[in-house]
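SAMPLE LOG
Freezer: B-3
Tube label: C17
Construct: single chain, 151 aa
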Amino acid sequence: MRGVPATALILALAGLLPFLWGAAMAVVPNPAALPLYRDMPAALRDEAVLVEYGIVILCFMSGVLWGFAARTARARAAAGYAASVVPALWAFFAVRGAGESALIALAAGFAGVLAIDWLFARAGLAPSWWMRLRVPVTVVVLACLGTGIVF
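STRUCTURE (predicted):
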């Protein structure tokens, strides 16, 4: 992650915590046996956090991509704006309920965001360090979603 600004790196890593937590909740055979379980908010008690937080982050990434699109003009900007709304629309239309199908849809959404990130980076609209941050973060997100699917 050479060249990634420290603040961006720290905040991106912090943003992985709910994904890691959700994956851990998917793997723990009996989370209710954990001493702190009863004091947790209900939204954190199972792997559903993967779906809920995943939807939030796909929508967040739409906003990030919109910002990249705003760095250009005319037809290129229009294409960028159109691409930038795809993750949020995907989250709204494709991710339904909870469970395996929602996690698979989210995984596809995050893989799609990475592809759009690559297009923006290739067009020179993203910072030079962007893909050095996005690839490993996306790998962790996909691994966490995969854990939720498998367990």
